[in-house]
Amino acid sequence: MSARFDCADPDQRAEGLAAAEAALGRGELVVLPTDTVYGVAAEAFDPVAVEALFKAKGRGRDRPPPVLVGTVRAAMALIHELGDSGKDLIDEFWPGPLTLICRSSPTLVWDIGDSKGTVAVRMPLNQVALDLLKQTGPLAVSSAKSAAPGPMPATAAEAEAQLGDSVAVYLDGGPCPGEPSTIVDLTGSVPRMLRAGVITVDRLRDVILVAEVDDPAEDEPAGAGDEPAGAAAEGAASAVPEEAGAEPAEAAESAEASESVEVTEADGTAGAAEAAAPAEPEPAPDTAGGAAGDTPGRGRDAGPGPTR
Description:
The chain is an alpha/beta fold. The chain is 21% helix and 21% strand.
């Protein structure tokens, strides 16, 4: 039977965060608020838990979920090589509604679906989510929406109505904004905006040079885990956010060969970005982006947050 905690009450918040961490450690699912929509989370390094997430949502492995982190350090441990453009975007927009699709570190031992060696990663601007992520480490998060027709969940009650007892713990952080995250693909030689969200292309161009993918097809909202939806670069998984882990258009959930990844967020509708595969980027050096000792895993997110 599921437990629900009102995070507006300090005692219930503390109890709920502890219960959520324990549930995730047992391989169970947790629903949490984000700065886009409610997301359903699983321990990213537990393949059985990730499979349970797919089952609860009624989706296949071809749509891997995005990964939410509580610190920049945790994100760097997941990424093969970020590059100057990625660093500039993180400095400017994290924590916040920006999902980055990157090549994943070759040292990672995990199975989040058919991600083609990529990962869609985001640091949400929601204190309940950040508090949990700093305790658990990276979480695979998709929008807290089942495969059945219906709106993206902007409240814990809406999420519970769709996912029911497939989730062990519901963290009620009040209504979420419902707007999707912006998705940028960093796997090619030139950064590409796969989906416009809260952050506009003009704002991105104030920071870096970025190409814009034309009119992605609408499919399904992404938001919580911020699953980027749609096709992306060759070998990269694309996603449209659903909020929860944060997802407006729900398409693929983790990074971006015409692959879909989900990004939890949104406005209650999911969208998929269909982009042509760009030229294969130059191979990056075979070194992981994280600092020594930052191997991802449970409880590894504690560390300095981004410089704003």
